[in-house]
């Protein structure tokens, strides 16, 4: 079972064989494979789309105003008229070898409608979704080069290249999968993913134009097949919210000793930093404070955790 908003997403992969194995490569059970989709052959196309595409293409007569002979062309050059070959996908669906995939050259991708194919695994740049604007902190994810142990605190802590455990097929790194879409052939689209003016810790904000908190915190596999997702209680490395290890993969950056003046003439750590240090100093788990629950739409959202009295009594002691 895929959590709430991901129920309609396309699912490929065989991550069920992965067991409890640390990434990378990341589990491939949810969504499309982390691979490149250019330099494809006819067999590659049918590997995902199957062989029975008749109904889908015949619908184009009504949806696109095509005619039968738009595809079924007659060849009369050698005598009796015969139907020319029409079952080669690339007669209509083009790709730029080594640069752009057949999928991303289409109008849907070119206008930035990623969710049309990737479903609720992503968000669209112009749909008005929430993207954080606060300054980088010890827990702000980076796209790469995480500052925590073994590279924790970055997308590529899990999303890097390697061999899929279930099939032995190669899984590609995020840089390869995104650059091989061919969208960068239009230089104006580079800014969709890259904010060259942002500080290092804030470059993730460009990524969040498509991969923002709501979609990211709803990517998870039901690891014990009991029909429900329990945040923090699932096996690690099978999603984003199933285990504290998953949280730290993104948010386990180095504990920066940020400080502000105050506290009897001394220095006091910024409140978020002081509380985040409890993960290291007291063995606290992220979801001890950041509680996830399903809202009325079946989407996991965070319960308000900024009310001091939830943990601290009126006398100043922690409950």
What are the defining features of this structure?
elongated, two-stranded antiparallel sheet, disordered N terminus, 319 residues, 12 helices, alpha+beta
Task: Describe what this molecule looks like in 3D.
The chain has helices at residues 42-49, 54-58, 60-63, 68-71, 107-110, 115-118, 174-179, 204-207, 213-216, 244-251, 271-276, 278-281, and strands spanning 74-75, 82-83, 162-163, 170-171, 259-261, 267-269, 292-294, 300-302. Strand 7 and strand 8 (300-302) form a beta hairpin. It has a domain at 4-38 and 100-258. It contains 12 helices and 8 strands. By secondary structure, it is of the alpha+beta class.
Summed up:
The chain has 319 residues and is α+β, with helices and mostly antiparallel strands. The chain has 12 helices and 8 strands. The protein has a domain at 4-38 and 100-258.
Helix and strand composition category: alpha+beta
Distance separating the two termini: 36 Å
What does the overall shape look like?
A: elongated
- Residues in β-strands, percent: 5-15%
What Rg, in angstroms, do the CA atoms define? 24 Å
The quaternary state of the protein chains shown equals: single chain
- How many E-type strands? 8
Low-confidence stretches: 1-16, 260-267
The largest sheet is: 2 strands, antiparallel
Query: What is the spatial order of strands in the main beta sheet?
Result: 1-2
Number of distinct helices: 12
Mean pLDDT score:
84
Helix content: 10-25%
The SSE string, one letter per element, is: HHHHEEHHEEHHHHEEHHEE
